[in-house]
Amino acid sequence: MKLEQLSITQLEERQLQLEKQYDAYKSAGLSLDLTRGKPGAEQLDLSNSLDGILQGFYLLQDGTDVRNYGGLTGIAEARELGGLFMDLPAKEVMVGGNSSLTLMYNYIHFMMESVWLKESKSNNETIKFLCPVPGYDRHFTICDAFNIEMIPVNMLDDGPDMDHIEKLLAQDASIKGIWCVPKYSNPTGTTYSAEVVERFAKLPTIAGDHFKIMWDNAYAVHHLNDQPDQLSNLMDAAREADTAESVIMFASTSKVTFAGSGISFIGLSEDNLKAFEKFLSASAIGPDKVNQLRHVRFLVDADGIQAHMRKHKDIIGPRFDMVDNVLNQHLGNRGIADWTKPMGGYFVSLNTLPGLASTVIKMAGDVGVKLTPAGATFPNGDDPRNQNIRIAPTFPSMEALRQALEVFVVCLELASIQQLLKR
Amino acid sequence: MKLEQLSITQLEERQLQLEKQYDAYKSAGLSLDLTRGKPGAEQLDLSNSLDGILQGFYLLQDGTDVRNYGGLTGIAEARELGGLFMDLPAKEVMVGGNSSLTLMYNYIHFMMESVWLKESKSNNETIKFLCPVPGYDRHFTICDAFNIEMIPVNMLDDGPDMDHIEKLLAQDASIKGIWCVPKYSNPTGTTYSAEVVERFAKLPTIAGDHFKIMWDNAYAVHHLNDQPDQLSNLMDAAREADTAESVIMFASTSKVTFAGSGISFIGLSEDNLKAFEKFLSASAIGPDKVNQLRHVRFLVDADGIQAHMRKHKDIIGPRFDMVDNVLNQHLGNRGIADWTKPMGGYFVSLNTLPGLASTVIKMAGDVGVKLTPAGATFPNGDDPRNQNIRIAPTFPSMEALRQALEVFVVCLELASIQQLLKR
Fold it and tell me: CA-to-CA distance for B241 and B244, rounded, in angstroms?
């Protein structure tokens, strides 16, 4: 039954119950954490054979000794592998070090130095980026680092609000880019529909190819379901629409093999790649090719990736099920929260009643359950409705996850009742 | 006998001989390369056990799982290891990815964004750097990338010309730093004397701690002799002189283990480290900790490093001997070239008669022997006397090295005679 259908007396009774439970948690000395979008040890174990996989063989077919210096674009075999993640030919893939975030930062730095700063100075305009919300805080941090103004755009069920985006881009040449996590989006789990992808390829941007779509396909192969979502190929559509120079794709093996020791990919037109490579040549001699070769040997091909990701699903699928079950059991049909049941990715996105996210997060924190700070999924930490909470279920043990969720639902219901009673 | 003591007839005779030899090389279809300051395959083989060394153990004593995300400063064990390379306590060491060059670039980027650009704007002054010459071209490229003006300063036998440096720094606050390779300097092999290091600690810079000494100790443990050069500890001297905030040290295992897959170190005061870490946090989640742990297991401690580097010496020592022998045999006491016989590092630095470097390099290139481009060891590629040539003997096989050197000495002598005869 919805909470708002209860009488004041019923609400007060329930409040007392919940307060008792909450006090019990207080004295339980819990230390639980739902913030960390990182794989658990069992997942990492899946890739333990990476270390030692080369068996002393360090030479590539083309004669390259992967142990030595050089090769900014990455080894040919790893470019092929990246092509599988991003659905691109190898020639449009560059392979980086252990972090696609670093590639994104470097790409923004490259655009700032080569184009955007000059334009901004000559037009006396602030450089702006569109940020679908809720979104990934690390993208926002990069904008912050370069003093790029962020314009939030709402996420809808099939991707960002394209009407809004098209309207903004048709009138403002100082908008230089947009952050997208097009598949199993962080945190909402949304996969952009074919129509949305098509509209991305045909955006009416007046900044032309100085506008960049930062297509962070972080969860390209991270399915939680045997009928995975399908994402259409933006680069193909953009080639058709003659906007390929605006498409910059990213992927990595961070949540495939070792989170901190994977390899990263950037996908872009050959001209863009050449220019970016030239920019990088001042700061690097080349990525870790030995680790690239390890990943090629370990993942092998599309079938290899798929088989490996199925093992991840078997480990984390039950955690996502547990989140949905506990939330349903305690909050289902109560009218005080809604949440996503993602088909892939790493997060569950939950909305409280407006204005309650920070209260719930504080209450949980006070009894030892850490949640991602309120607003973290919004530019400048500002969730205008103060209602979004990101839950990351992969890292804790099943038991710790259950405990943390049980505390969380008590906090959420209690905060909701307190608000209702204050009216 | 010195060439200039020969008669014109003798010179012309010798010229004919050399031309014959040169023509023979022309038709020999050689393809040799003395440009690459990188280890040969035999050296890389010394570290093949890196891959697989962890044997499935990925947990640190402090509980860190090296496979997962996080830890921008690097793992404690690797910070200790870096301390051995730079003679610093672990708390003043941050461990990066596979390239100290990237750490240098990032540090310059950090200083640009946090301090230098603002100062430069408000004073309407160009940002400048001192560059001991001949020096390392990659340092100059970083300056180029950030539009930093480079002021060359001559290298003397015991380090850079400190009188000149002190004079410049006492009068110009827009000089924000200096590049140094203080041990077995690239390319001259010079190790800075204790007096020079002491003077670095007490530089009369009016830029204060906005002035940074970029102390690239790339060859800290790369001895070619059993009585290695000793470099005094700049950080100790700077602490004493209250200038420690100006000291930024670098080292790496690039020429210790795998050139492209090593780990890198930056050494700096704890305050500097904290500020730099904060800057990096926008672009990275953390370095490859698995590879850091591999290096800790592989090199172990100071004795381990020393024993390992002795094996490198056994491989590359004979190559340096060959360079010196061939040069001596053909150019000794001829008054047309002088060169270094380094006690460590990766290069031999040779000076031709003034004005001849580019000619010799072109002549050698025309018969298939590639040498580092003339001027590469100077800012903006400008060797004012056009006489410095950098020879890198580690990468080719002994036989290829001998062939290349024999071509080289013919080109050098021939060019010198041609010049003498033109007088």
Answer: 8
